[in-house]
Structures are given as C-alpha cells and as structure tokens.
Amino acid sequence: SQTNIFPDKSTNTYSYKASIIKGSEDNLQNIEGSYLGPVLRVKKGDKVRVRYENQIPAESIVHWHGLHVSHENDGHPAHVIGEGDTYYYEFEVMNRAGTYWFHPHPHRHTGEQVYQGLAGLFIVSDKEEEKLNLPQGEYDIPVVIQDRTFDDNKQLQYLGDGQMDRMQGFLGEQILINGKIDNTLELGANGKYRLRLLNGSNSRAYKLAWDHGEAITVLGVDGGLLKAPKRMPYLMLGPAQRVDIWLDLSQQVENSRIKLVHLPISLDMMGGGMMNGGMMGNSNSNHLPYDTQFDIMEINVGASAENDAQLPGELSSLNTLAATDAINKNNPRTFTFAMGGMMEWTINGHTYNGTEVAEEETVKLDTTEIWRINNGSQFSSDPDDDSGMMGGGMHGNGGMMGGQGGMGNMMQMPHPVHIHQLQFNILNRNADKVDDKLWEATKDGFINEGRQDSVYLLPGMQMDLIMRFEDFKGLFLYHCHNLEHEDMGMMRNFKIV
Ligand code: C2O
Ligand code: CU
Ligand code: CU
Fold first, then answer.
1. Element (H or E) spanning 394, and its range?
2. Residues with C-beta less than 6 Å from any ligand 1 atom
3. Whose CA is nearest to atom 3 of ligand 1?
C-alpha cells in the first residue's frame, strides 16, 4: 500500500489490514497513521479464527510469535501461500496475558517482508491480570521500535548490495516508533502508563534507558507479567523481545519532556576495517552506530491526565520450571549458533532445509527439557586448529584480519535466539566467554526472570533454557531472530513426537 510516513511524499509499504467479522471493536485497534499491522486484543480462552488473504506479490504466511498453538497454526514456512491465496487459522488462546506479535515467516523473505511493514501486536489479557489495577485503554500503549532507511525518494531501502550487510543483518539510519518517523508520544502529566515495547527491528538490539536518570520499571517480558516489578538502570532489548514497562508521570510537570534513549555499546563488531571495505563489498555505513547515544522516543508531557492505576508490589503467581523437572538435567540438549565454513550462519553446523529434522532435534510430548544454547564460533581462536575454510586459510594472520583470533572471532555476532510455540524459563546465563567490556556494559540490562520466547545471546554467551513440550505434537521452528540470519538459514525445526 501507499503510506504517508512523510507529509510530502507517499511511501510504498506492505501492511496487514484487518477487519473484524465476528467479535467487537475492542478486539482490533489500528495505530493511527501507521502502516504497521493492527493491535489485536483477546482474552485467554478466546477462540480465534483468522482468514488470511495474501495480497502481496510474493509467498507468505503469518506466524503468531510467542503463541502456544498447533503446527498448522504456527505459520511454518512449509505453509506459505501465493498471491491471491487464503489460509485459515483457528486456535484457542492458551497463553497468559502478555504482549505477543505476528509477522510473516516465508523462508528467505521474512526479513524483507517485515521490513516492508508486515508486523502487528497480539495482546492477551487474562483473569489474573484483570485483578490488578494496571493502566488500561489510552494508558496502555504499544511501542514498536524499528530502524529503517529511506532513499532520496522517501522509499524504504532494505539491504545494501554487499554481502557484509547480509552477514551483519540490516541496520537502519533512523528509528521509527509504531511505523512513524515522528517518535514523540504525547502523554499526560500525572498519568500512569503501561508501555508495551516490542523490538520489531530486523537485527538491531537496543540498550534502553530514560534520559532523566530514573530506573526502568519492568512489569513483564515476552510471555507475560513477572512475579514482581523489576527496576533496572537500563534494559537490553534484542530483536523480537517484548518488555512491558511502567511509566509514572506524577513527578513530571506539564510541558516537560523525557526521552527513552539508546546508550552506547560496542556491538558494531563486523562493521569496520578490511572486512567492510574490501572483501565483502561496502556496507551501508550510514546506519546509526551502536556505539553512540541516540534517541528512541520522546515523551511530551501534556495536560494532567490522572488515572488511578497502581503499581502492585506483586504482579503474578507465575509458576517457574525447575531444573529438577527436566528429563535431561545432567545432559542438556546443546545448540551452537555460529558461523559455518562457507560464510553461513548455522546451528550445530546445519542450515535450514525445509522440513528436515535431525535426531538431536526430536523431543517428546509431555516432557520438560533443558536446552543449552551457545554463541560460539565453529572456528577456534586456537591457531593450531585448522578446521574450516576461514579458519584454515586466514587465522593466525593477525595483520590482515586485525586480530590474533582470526576470522572466527571476527565473525562472532550476537544471535537473538527464538523458540516457537512455547515460553521457557532461563536457568542460567553464562558470560564467562563474553568480552569483558561488552559484558560490563550490558550485564545489568538482561532479565532472567519470567517466561520468555526470545533471548539475546551475546558472542561467547551460553544460556540454559528450560521448557515443556505440551498439548501439540508436530514440527516447530527455533532460529536466530536476526531476520537476515534467519533468511540465510540460521533456522531449524524441532519435532515434538
Ligand atoms: Cu518471530 Cu519464527 O519468529
Ligand atoms: Cu516465533
Ligand atoms: Cu544470528
């Protein structure tokens, strides 16, 4: 569709346009002036039927990110439909109250289609949450954070030509909030707000903080409310992650302004030097650099808009899976996210291959397991290790690649790891092999509590996740949610039998 992102020129985008056939107005909220998909609001236990009609000139399918649904309802790439075709979803909402979302999932084109505008929110409420006096209606605000680049014609520009851009993932030149270049929210003094943040960016992570120095108060994560609010000096938000935060403007005077900013971190690992210029073609070097501060969103505090919402001391009686529940507690299933031999992003050395499932990817219904995910290179930084093309050919060549560790280390990147169909608990986050400076700058921004479906795995990081496979057998995905990595094949199936 044609969208007015800019006042003077229309921009071509894709959009999810929704209408309600049965249900009520309350189930569908369009974000005014936004090309992004609508906000669908449902209650736990609701039966949802969606008729999805594909009107873009490419194959696509809708994935309900974070929802506990059957294979047929999960938007597996195997179910893509062509232009003009229709797909029916029918499921019961089994998830806890929380901020979920939906986006396309065709293999190789997810990044591009999300980038063009296909993404929307799926907000679930439940009885437990209703008992709390949390902000509602106009005080409950979606905040979808994305980075985008526009060309001189004000058209969305996706990747540059270089292989480099693809390897790194798309990084944009400016921040859009809810699909708008005007990143200001007009809120009322004295109001108490619930901001539902979604990092809907293709590959960029954010280190978020309030510029007036106050802590960020977190209410919930991917899979719903935490047990209790958590105050954090800053927050790391990787692609696909959601976090609900509490914002109390009762200390703010009218006409004041506060900002949510990105704080500098050194994540532009593959951005510089030799790699950038020579070997793999130029990358789009105008993107917002990770290592500078920039504004995410500005809040203009307007006339008083007092509401009686309260920040509860306790939010939910969430049950947490324990290591002792796992059938493999002494022997976690291990998945390593790393660069493979031919400049590919791989999981345990494999890339996506249709509905292929390896033995190590088959799990049993009604069991609880620990998955250990590693961000580690296939290439050792040990100069005696000759494995792989880059490892053998290039490492140890300190001068050329600019580091002793050679290509293996150079090509480490964060991987935002996501598992479909379930919400896990984090048992452990091991940062022993994470660069000290990077860890020091990020460690207070991670949330290990609550149910989550996506985590931001820094280079060298290892995490133990605990999850239960229930209700549905079938084929589901786990993958890197850096959408360019995903499209390059850093995605695999797991099968529940
Ligand atoms: Cu949000 Cu498989 O994706
Ligand atoms: Cu998903
Ligand atoms: Cu990745």
1. helix 389-394
2. 63, 65, 103, 105, 240, 418, 420, 477, 479, 481
3. 65
* Residue 497 to residue 495: CA distance in whole angstroms: 6
Check if the beta carbon of residue 331 is closer than 8 Å to that of residue 371. Answer: no
The yes/no answer on whether domain 137-302 falls in CATH 2.60.40.420 is yes
CA 64, 67, 72, 76 dihedral sign is positive
The owner of tokens 């569709």 is 1
d(CA 248, CA 82): 46
Say if domain 323-376+412-496 classifies as CATH 2.60.40.420: yes
pLDDT tens-place string over residues 42-75: 999 999 999 999 999 999 999 999 999 999 999 9
Which ipTM did the prediction report?
0.99
pLDDT digits (tens, 9 = 90+) for 4-34: 899 889 999 999 999 998 888 889 999 888 9
The CATH fold assigned to 2-130 is: Immunoglobulin-like (2.60.40)
List every span in the chain annotated with CATH 2.60.40.420. Answer: 2-130, 137-302, 323-376+412-496
Give dist(CA 265, CA 268) in Å, integer. Answer: 8
- Measured between alpha carbons, how far apart are the two ends of the chain, in Å? 42
Query: Is the predicted pLDDT of residue 133 greater than 50, yes or no?
Result: yes
